[in-house]
Write a structure and sequence with these properties.
This protein is α+β, with helices and mostly antiparallel strands. It contains 2 helices and 5 strands. The protein has a 5-stranded antiparallel beta sheet with strand order 1-2-3-4-5, with helices on one face. The longest helix has 13 residues. The N and C termini lie far apart (25 Å). The model has no long low-confidence stretch (mean pLDDT 92).
């Protein structure tokens, strides 16, 4: 697992292994002990723990919308077993 960004305290990461078992491109997020998985490029919630902060979730979804191309490039690296590159948060 490689952290690629921190957005208002939410850690965004990808697993760096053969992602064939992971199906479609997605990221994992973690904040205050809660977790979620969001698809790339649309930010759709794939899985989410019940207590995940909705405002924090929306912030990450907006970031995914703006950084989708970078995230898909990182997904390709992860599929090859390489470490994804860091991606800047929105300013």
């Amino acid at each position: 697992m490689a952290s690629i960004c921190i957005i208002n305290g939410v850690v965004v990461y990808m697993y760096t292994e053969n992602t064939a078992k992971h199906h479609s491109p997605h990221v994992h997020i973690r904040f205050a002990g809660e977790t979620a998985s969001l698809s790339i490029p649309d930010g759709e919630v794939l899985e989410m723990s019940e207590g995940f902060d909705r405002k924090k979730l929306r912030n990450v979804q907006t970031w995914i919308d703006y950084r989708a191309q970078d995230l898909l490039a990182d997904w390709q690296l992860a599929c090859e077993g390489k470490k994804p590159l860091a991606i800047l948060p929105l300013s």
